[in-house]
Design goal:
The complex is a heterodimer.
Chain A lengths: L5 E5 L2 E3 L7 E4 L2 E4 L7 E3 L1 H16 L4 E8 L1 H11 L6 E6 L8 H13 L9 E6 L10 H9 L4 E10 L5 E6 L5 E6 L4 E5 L11 H16 L2 E2 L28 H13 L1
Parallel strand pairs in A: 1-6, 1-8, 6-7, 7-13, 8-12, 9-12
Antiparallel strand pairs in A: 2-5, 3-4, 9-10, 10-11
Helix pairs in contact in A: 2-5, 3-4
Chain B lengths: L9 H7 L6 H23 L10 H12 L20 H12 L3 H20 L2 H11 L13 E4 L17 E6 L7 E7 L3 E2 L6 E8 L8 E6 L4 E8 L10 E11 L7 E4 L2 E4 L3 H37 L12 H5 L5 H45 L4 H9 L2 H12 L5 H9 L1 H36 L14 H11 L6 H11 L3 H20 L5 H20 L14 H30 L4 H4 L2 H33 L5 H17 L3 H14 L11
Parallel strand pairs in B: 1-5, 2-5
Antiparallel strand pairs in B: 2-3, 3-8, 4-8, 5-6, 7-8, 9-10
Helix pairs in contact in B: 2-3, 2-4, 4-5, 4-7, 4-9, 5-6, 5-7, 7-9, 7-13, 7-14, 9-13, 9-18, 9-20, 9-22, 11-13, 11-16, 13-14, 13-15, 13-18, 15-18, 16-17, 17-18, 17-20, 17-21, 18-20, 20-21, 20-22
Classes of the chains: A alpha/beta, B alpha+beta.
């Protein structure tokens, strides 16, 4: 496809999973303790989508990547210092909550509206990428909502591989039960892809790519549109899953022994 | 009352260390951090430090430095870099981030920069663009390997150590045909040369061994030059093993255009434009700052693993159940462990404040120094001695400017005139840089190594084991090298003993004392008054030492009396670190509310950092007070009125410490409450 794709990646930020994430109820509903102060990262699911998008854009001339992100813009700026170094993209910012307690429908509608408003976006070339799941908004519904709102009904979830065929059709591998894949072919854009882990590793930081991206990232942050989500579901209670750790530190164990122990544990 | 809720994040640090609006630097920090906590941590955990040899395992670092942009950081955009202008702060932050995990990796990252530094500081434009351009990693489509360098200053075996005045490396004229460029014979043996395993070129300090060459110089040799480019034996060092270090031997012929900074021919004699010591002075002025911050990074990186250890000390055993104080707080149920950790954290903060303030100062000094050189060149003032003499003449104007700056009213026209004078600006910046640079190299590393021992001691059950979290044992031993290389502690004390009596600096000190006295009255909780009293006592003691004599009639403040000059240099370092720390806290107080992330919980964060600054101020003033007392009484007897005056100042200093112990209690209490991540961000 010589004209290329317009790839929009939807990706939010989440607290760094190394942190202690303790739910607390505040005046505005449930949230995490000290959430704003915790270091944040790009949602790992969205990260895979972004790296796949950049790779696709690199291999299909004329393509362009946008990253549409909703979150507190001060936190987004920090995360962009890393993400902007990975791959080229243009940022579109919605200054709103990144909380895991936000309603997926409201979030999806706000993101769809932002995508539709991107200047110069050609919906006939549009591929909407995002995380199949999320480390915070784990409803697994946001990408479907975005697609429906944009009128895109070719949707694929749990994607691990996307291949452009010679005739311009797209071959997609979606995860299904039992470690198997559903192999589909769609004639082309527009389509929505909720990515699982994809195939690509995280690219190394490249400050030169970052410097190019930041020329657009900073203005995007400055003109970020505030978004106020309607009140979502009411939670009668929230708690951290109970932890049970049985960690042993064993040095120099043979690989076979480690594998056997894991298999024994899985089949126990 | 709100207290510290989480460990300070990037938003807080960017304000305190003044790079909030420098997103180019912020990206470099993130880049260095992911490299440090990824590849570097894995190398250490996998035992890469256990050999003196440079291995393929360690060599992964080089490619990672290239791909993450750290190799190109030192270069200007037209040379293939990506940051325009001075890069001292950026380089300091990179060293800090890498040393957070392993300082050897930080040294390895900086080695080529050190080799390039003589060319960068004093090289000709052609030399700068050629060598810096070749050291940039290849761009897409380019088929070449990046050039890497090593810096050979130190002397051949058995003369171990730095000697900047006497050089054993020799330079002779090998061939000089009429009308052609001279070919020079370089004969140099290096010792402890970083980056030598993979260096393609080396910048070597050599002395003249030929009447046709006038002076010493620094010369560039390459591995393809005719002759011997022997990388030598690996240095059997016990620390910083993630950097390559060897004792090379060079015996090569190079064209005279390799003399750094160029040369002129006068009466048939090659006259290098810069002697080796002139170049080295400019180089070490700057490269010492990142080294100082390497040790500081270790102290601050120790906080989180120590807290984790303290809290989890008793978990998993039969002695405590979840929900009990012993289970939840562990060692932190008792005050001593957290009080000691407060000391470590406070020292780390002070070191960071001092080091980053110095890096920022050099970012200001760099363009001013170039402008100063241009002005002197226009006026025909050549050579270091002539420049020094000329600069002495502007000291009075610099002092006048300082006094006008601090005064409530002033002659604005005169103030502007002085402010626009390049030489005045240079004299002002240099007088402070000449203090802060040796001070951070001396204090951050020397005192830092001592404090690092305390951090390791707090690890108790883990102690000196390979699985001690945060690689604390390695960090402790590495710190000793940082206190040694790029000028051992005595070299820094020696420099300070000369520069700390500079009149421009002393004039600035008097103003700082007044300003901090005023700040101490409005904000006593910062410890500003303690620092002001400490500086006042130090200043009085310096003046006393200049007029006082010992019973034999010998002057007390004398170049050779290092039991006077050196302790006073140490005392000044403590106070300057504390001064910078309070400055950073005040910056956070001013700018914190403007940042949405920092504003959330600012009261607690600011309160904690303020408590730390008071704790450190009391410690610094106490140390300075002890040193000053040992000077005034130790070489006595002295006149009674002198002793009375000293006693009065010292008594005021002691009283200004009111509340310091309470601040330490509050900070220690905060450490029992602060949230820490669930797991270490890099492996065992």
């Amino acid at each position: 496809m010589s004209a290329g794709y317009h790839i929009v990646v939807c990706g939010g930020i989440v607290p760094d999973p190394l942190q202690t994430l303790e739910p607390v109820q505040g005046p505005a509903g449930w949230g995490l303790k000290n959430e704003l102060m915790l270091p944040a990262i790009l949602d790992p699911w969205a990260g895979h989508a972004l790296f796949e998008a950049a790779n696709l854009a690199k291999n299909v001339p004329g393509s362009k990547v946008w990253l549409v992100s909703m979150g507190p813009k001060a936190k987004l700026q920090q995360v962009m210092m890393t993400i902007a170094q990975k791959v080229p993209f243009e940022l579109v910012v919605l200054d709103g909550p990144a909380s895991g307690f936000a309603d997926a429908h409201e979030t999806g509608a706000a993101l769809a509206e932002a995508i539709a408003a991107i200047p110069g976006l050609d919906t006939s070339k549009l591929l909407v990428f995002g995380g199949w799941q999320s480390a915070s908004r784990g409803a697994g519904a946001t990408m479907q909502v975005i697609g429906e709102k944009l009128g895109i009904f070719e949707q694929f979830q749990g994607v691990d591989k996307l291949e452009v065929l010679a005739d311009g059709a797209l071959r997609v591998l979606e995860r299904v039960e039992g470690g198997s894949y559903q192999d589909s072919v769609v004639s082309g854009a527009p389509a929505v892809f909720g990515w699982a882990t994809g195939e690509l590793p995280e690219p190394p930081n490249n400050p030169q790519v970052g410097m190019q991206n930041m020329r657009l990232v900073m203005p995007a942050l400055q003109k970020a549109k505030p978004v106020k989500l309607e009140k979502g579901p009411e939670y009668s209670g929230v708690q951290i899953p109970s932890q049970k750790r049985e960690t042993r530190v064993v040095k120099d164990a043979p690989v076979d022994q480690i594998a056997k122990e894991i298999v024994d544990w899985l089949s126990a | 009352m709100d207290t510290l809720r989480t460990l300070p994040g990037d938003d807080v640090r960017q304000i305190m260390w003044r790079f909030t609006d420098r997103y180019d630097i912020q990206m470099v920090v993130q880049s260095a951090r992911s490299l440090a906590r990824g590849l570097v941590a894995r190398l250490v955990a996998e035992g890469a430090r256990k050999t003196h040899e440079w291995t393929d395992h360690k060599a992964q670092l080089l490619e990672a430095f290239d791909t993450s942009g750290l190799t190109a950081l030192f270069m200007d955009p037209h040379q293939g870099g990506f940051i325009d202008g001075p890069k001292n702060l950026a380089l300091a932050l990179v060293a800090f981030e890498l040393a957070w995990v392993d300082a050897g990796a930080a040294t390895c990252s900086l080695a080529t920069n050190l080799a390039l530094a003589p060319i960068h500081e004093r090289g000709t434009t052609e030399q700068r663009d050629e060598y810096m351009g070749r050291c940039v990693p290849p761009l897409p489509g380019e088929d070449r390997a990046p050039f890497r360098g090593a810096f050979a200053l130190t002397e051949p075996l058995p003369y171990v150590g730095v000697e900047t005045n006497t050089l054993v490396g020799k330079l002779r004229v090998a061939k000089w045909e009429e009308g052609e460029e001279p070919i020079l014979q370089v004969d140099k043996r290096g010792r402890f040369i970083t980056g030598m395993d993979f260096a393609n070129f080396a910048t070597c300090a050599v002395d003249t061994d030929d009447p046709r060459i006038k002076s010493s110089c620094i010369v560039i040799v390459e591995d393809t030059d005719p002759g011997l480019f022997d990388r030598g034996a690996p240095t059997l060092k016990m620390v910083h093993q993630l950097s390559s270090t060897r004792d090379p031997v060079f015996n090569l012929q190079v064209p005279a255009s390799r003399i750094v900074g160029g040369y002129t021919v006068k009466d048939g004699v090659i006259v290098p434009n810069f002697t080796h010591s002139e170049i080295i002075g400019a180089v070490f002025h700057r490269t010492r700052v990142p080294v100082a911050l390497m040790t500081t990074a270790k102290l601050l990186s120790a906080v989180e693993p120590v807290i984790r250890y303290q809290r989890q000390r008793f978990r998993g055993g039969d002695a405590s159940e979840p929900g009990t104080s012993k289970y939840e707080l562990g060692l932190q149920a008792k005050p001593d462990s957290v009080l000691r950790l407060v000391d470590i954290w406070a020292a780390g903060e002070a070191g960071a404040s001092l080091g980053f303030a110095t890096a920022r100062l050099f970012d200001q000094l760099d363009p001013t120094e170039k402008e100063k050189d241009r002005v002197f060149a226009e006026r025909g003032v050549c050579g270091a001695k002539s420049q020094l003499t000329a600069l002495r003449k502007v000291e009075k104007q610099a002092i006048e400017y300082l006094q006008m700056e601090a005064a409530p009213t002033r002659d604005e026209a005169r103030f502007a005139e002085l402010g626009q004078d390049t030489l005045v600006r240079f004299a002002l910046l240099e007088s402070l840089a000449n203090i802060l640079c040796p001070a951070c190299k001396l204090w951050n590393t020397g005192n830092g190594a001592n404090v690092m021992r305390e951090a390791l001691a707090l690890m108790g059950g883990y102690g000196i084991t390979e699985d001690c979290p945060g690689f604390l044992f390695y960090k402790w031993t590495d710190a000793q090298l940082e206190a040694t290389y790029e000028g051992p502690e005595a070299v820094q004390r020696r420099q300070l003993s000369i520069t700390m009596t500079n009149e421009v600096f002393l004039a600035r000190l008097r103003i700082i004392i007044d300003q901090f006295m005023a700040l101490g009255e409005s904000k006593p909780e910062t410890g500003a008054a303690v620092v002001a009293k400490g500086l006042a006592l130090w200043l009085w003691t310096i003046e006393f030492l200049h007029r006082a004599k010992d019973p034999s009639g010998a002057r007390l403040y004398h170049n050779r009396r290092q039991n006077v000059t050196f302790p006073m240099a140490d005392a000044l370092c403590w106070l300057m670190a504390s001064y910078c720390q309070i400055g950073d806290v005040m910056e956070l107080a001013e700018k914190g509310p403007e940042n949405a992330v920092v504003a959330e919980g600012l009261e607690g964060t600011l309160g904690f950092f303020t408590d730390l600054s008071l704790v450190q101020a009391a410690r610094a003033a106490g140390e300075a007070s002890r040193v000053c007392a040992s000077m005034v009484y130790g070489f006595g007897p002295q006149a009674a009125e002198e002793l009375d005056a000293f006693d009065a100042l010292r008594s005021q200093l002691d009283r200004s410490m009111a509340g310091a112990a309470l601040a330490k209690d509050r900070a220690a209490q905060a450490l029992t409450q602060v949230m820490i991540p669930e797991a270490l961000d890099y492996p065992l």
